[in-house]
Design goal:
- The chain has 436 residues and is α+β, with helices and mostly antiparallel strands.
- Helices cover 27% and strands 33% of the residues.
- Helix 6 packs antiparallel against helix 8.
Length: 436
Amino acid sequence: MSENGTSQNNENNELLDALNSIDNVKVGDVVKGEILTIDDDQQAIVGIADTGIEGVVPKKELSTKPVDDINEVIKVGDVLDLVVISRIGTDKEGGSYLLSQRRLEARKVWDDIQKEFEAGHTLTAPVTQVVKGGLVVDAGVRGFVPASMVSDHFVEDLAQFKGQTLEFKIVEIEPSENRLILSHRAIVEKERAAQKEEIMAKLTAGDVVDGKVARLTNFGAFVDLGGVDGLVHVSEIAFERVEKPSDVLKVGQDVKVKVLSVDPDRDRISLSIKQTLPEPWDGIEDKAPQGSVLDGTVKRLTSFGAFVEVFPGVEGLVHISQISHQHIATPADVLKVGQEIKVKVLDVRPDDHRLALSIKALEEKPQSGDEGSENRSSSNNNRSRSNNGGNNNRRRNNRNSAETSTANAPEESTGFSLGDLIGDSLKKDMEDNENN
């Protein structure tokens, strides 16, 4: 056979071998490819080992991590493990294959994550994006954290987590659909449970500790003690009356609290802020000495008088007889809750937390001799002459009136005993008799 005939046969055999090689390369196969060149589009042209055909590896298919410059990752002569993605072109066009190292890495990552999931292990990964409904993390493959699984409480702004590397529990994994669902909430809850058990074991009633206001409700404030929340009831926020906790506290505020009780069985810790504050009645005899004039606010009105706050947490009583020189039926006739007034201190009892106040002592007493006074004087004289027992009747009536006005006022709520209030009334009767 001639040399030309031999050469032709060799070429035909090579072509047949190449065609057979093409048939042997299938989508999904893992092959070895040697980098032949890197083109201007930053694609690697590789020769698939033992086939004599070429493949293309785009820059984005080189790694699961972002690649800025392909030349910094690979060079001519490198041999890579690649997975066949698809066929490019036809045999007549010199068909080749689209290859990927990234997807081969991802396949291994999925296998590793599957093993961790089956073993009940967690994984650590950075948060790369904040999207509608949750967070995207890079776990070697794309993982998603629903908003409800980010924390153990509602988080309004998820952007704070971007860039953070967090620990996650694997909730769901489906490699065939590239679905990986993760939860950071499960990690937080586990950590807080451990912290809570440790803290509750250490806390005892009477301890004073630092905390941070975590949540506010209508009935009080929840304070974070470093992994466990305790409740400060609205009545324990301040010595003065607090209508709403939000009026005096704000979320995130640092506070000092006293532990009132710890109930591990009911998972409750009762706290107090006001019991860490100075007692408002301390030094009251110096702040409000007898005879001093103070600014105050009417806090409550009763049938027998008005309670006026003169310092935060310090209220004194203005008895009805000390409100005005004129006769009034009820304190509400001339005063209203919230009204700012000036009062004079008549009596101070620090040990009993009692403060007797007067409004009328700061007002000028009406002049005698006016027409009204003459009429009242004449009327009083006539009543005195017509019935010697009139004064006795009036005293009985006054006592009955005093008893009626204070009947519904227990000593602990008014700050003054029944005898204190009736005694004031009897003293006034005696003064009236002397004038008559």
